[in-house]
Amino acid sequence: MIVFIGxxxxxxxxxxxxxxxxxxxxxxxxxxxxxxxxxxxxxxxREHGEPHFRALERAVVAExxxxxxxxxxxxxxxLDPDTQRDLGAHRxxxxxxxxxxxxxxxxxxxxxxxxxxxxxxxxxxxxxRWAIYDRLADATFDTxxxxxxxxxEEVAAWLTTT
Length: 162
Fold this sequence. Notes:
The chain is of the alpha/beta class. The protein has one domain: P-loop containing nucleotide triphosphate hydrolases (Rossmann fold), CATH 3.40.50.300. Helix content is about 55%, strand content about 10%. It has nine helices and five strands. Helix 1 packs across helix 9, helix 2 crosses helix 4 and helix 3 crosses helix 4. The radius of gyration is 15 Å and the shape is globular. The relative contact order is 0.22.
């Protein structure tokens, strides 16, 4: 299993899909799996709060890590100590992005409740997570200014040579 981690808006799902196609393996996104099982993420946050969401997320992540292919995790999934431990058995790709590059990606996106206030919220949310992402990563790729197809080819090449 190849796992993409990183902050909201870094392109984990978009790039993960491209890499999976290049490698001819399945792709899954834990946010989409969670929403399919439990309803829209913003609604879960609104009605039950973040701790409930994180518990649901952990269960989805644990199950998905038992699969094959490429998996994209939600930005906060790495906060769970069990998820951190589980990721040690997988190849982990950390996607980074600058605040300037993420701004248009998250602007007005109702599906990202923790960054509803824009870039300032994004920076505050991700500052403490960055060290976790970095520690868990086997490789890091910046998505700020490069075309997704070129990045996907670079990540796929790294995966096939490691």
